[in-house]
Amino acid sequence: MCRIVIVTILHLKSTWASIFLGGTISWKSEGQRKVTFHEKLGFNLYNGPGCEIGKEGKYVSKLQNEDWKCSSGCTISDVISDVNYFCSSVNIQEQWEQGDKTFSFTFPSTGPFVVSYADAINGHHIQTTVDLRARSDIYKPNSSPITTAKPLYRFPLGCTSVISIPVSDPDGDAVKCRWANSVECGGTCQTLPNAILDEDTCTLEVDSTTLNGYAANQIYKVKITVEDKPKQNILLDTEKYTVSDTISSVPVQFEVHITQQTTACNDRPAFVSDTPGDQAVITSGNGVFNIDLYAMTVGSSTRIKEFVLSTPNGLTVSSPSKDDKGRPNIWYGTMSWSPDSAQQGLSIVCIEAVDDKGIIELLFNV
Predict the structure, then answer these.
(1) What CA–CA distances, in Å, run from 324 to 82, 295, 309, 319, 330?
(2) In which domain, by residue range, is 306 found?
């Protein structure tokens, strides 16, 4: 499980070659056709903008000529921003880095537009659609849904694993998830064999057996589109949108690595009481968050080695300690964050508890 919403293409090869794993981008209208975007991207460690241990919270900018562009709807293919970011998460064991950044762009009209980051050579493509026409229900333009994911997930061969993709919408719209089509993902889309995506709950179930076509030490791409739909019929300017129509879309992409099974499928850590529950909404009156996390191991011979975060930059978690409430086989850590002014609003945090056998339990708090 996973969820904490905290309220508060042309590519020119550079000498620093990126290896893109996945990510997302969302946006909100600021009025006068100005849009603020929020990117969250993941790369292979040492093959991205330069996020590494000790650089968390710092801006890293090793990637050149890799940009978000207005690829449809603009008179020219406008460069909106480069893809460099503030370093937020580093995972040495899984060899990935992740970062995020907020940037703004003023469009020439109300659109619609497509904003994308693509690389035909390396085969990745990630995009969002932007429509700035006024909605009749809120008397202003739409804001996109938001989501997040780790750059990669490790699933043991022969087990059923579930990811609850966290989604939220600032306008209160219905949010649906579906497999990305070939235009949205650049041609190479979903390579996860026989996976089941529940479009209403945004839950992904992977039964990684050899019978379903999985093999140990293999990597599979996952590319999903998240859409917002009105809960009642509305107008965008003068065009009618029903509850079946999509107002905007954002991507969520990541990789799944299948590992050789070394333990029973249910032999994994578990988050326990006093940890915020699934889809919890956490607010702070003074803008400072301190959130305790508790995870239980299977047996007294195993400990929680670390809590791994996929977070906004600046959010940290302490090293696990034995339970401060004296409960057996339980370890806890404290997640802390003081968001800056650019991070006001909704943020989604992904948390994993990892034991000393390398077994993972996933939690999304939204």
Answers:
(1) 44, 12, 21, 13, 9
(2) 270-365
